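ugh ok so i messed up the first submission bc i forgot one of the chains. this is the corrected input, ALL of the components this time, i swear. 263 residues overall. if the numbers dont match what u have on ur side tell me asap before i send this to the collaborators (the ones from the other lab, u know who)
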Amino acid sequence: MKYLIANDTSVLADLDNTDELLMFGQNRILNVESFDDTTTRIQIQGQRDTDDNDILTLKHADKSAAATHKVERNIIDDAVSAINSDSRLGFTVLFDALNNVKLPNQVLSGSSVTED
Amino acid sequence: MHRTMNAQEKELLMYVAEDATYATGNQAIFKASDFIGATIVTGVETKTIFRFLPQDSSTGLEAADPAPDTFTLTHTANAHIEVMKGVASAMSNPHGGFVVIQDDLGTAYTTDGSSAGSAISDISYPPIASTGTAVSVSAVEITTVDA
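and heres the new structure output, hopefully the right one now
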């Protein structure tokens, strides 16, 4: 089992609250869904409330624009690749706003972690 | 409650002890296959909580609002990500084994062996990536159904 980490907080001193940082196992992923033209979401089994779900919001370019219409398909590939990564370190950072880590087709601004 | 076994070639067990007195409820072993997830403790810059499926099924699968078993690490301020990375690396060993996450053995060395005068851990945490600040864990708190 490998583990995934996501952080939407870009200022170190601001790391202190809910809806900022999650770590979870690869098998806690529930689905990856299209939300709107610039948003794809990964839903995860909730931690604070295990019969609910946590959400990772991945922002990306506008898939309704001709020049970037494949962006959502590509970011789903990015996400699945990261989720299934057999990282030697034992973990994969999906995105980290503090350290400017993101999926190749992701836009960090507006990407977020939401806990239920 | 969605319950999924985390596939492990062999089980990995994580040991935590709150203090050197080893009173009832102050030590616990958690299984990596029971791991649910980890987050910041709400409103706290120095604590990360790790949640596991509860050993008492009356508070887990059958409960309307399941209460996980947990351990909470107190660490260098804002080092939540590095602490998560350290524990994730320890938990991901596919060959299983036994890992001391945190064993708080008191603050003063004693010649009778009851206190080493420091905490013991098998984990080496990376420094905070954005500042290079060294990361250490100073304490652990356990919450289980029997605590």
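quick check: The helical segments of chain B are 80-91. that seems consistent at least. Chain B has a mean pLDDT of 84.
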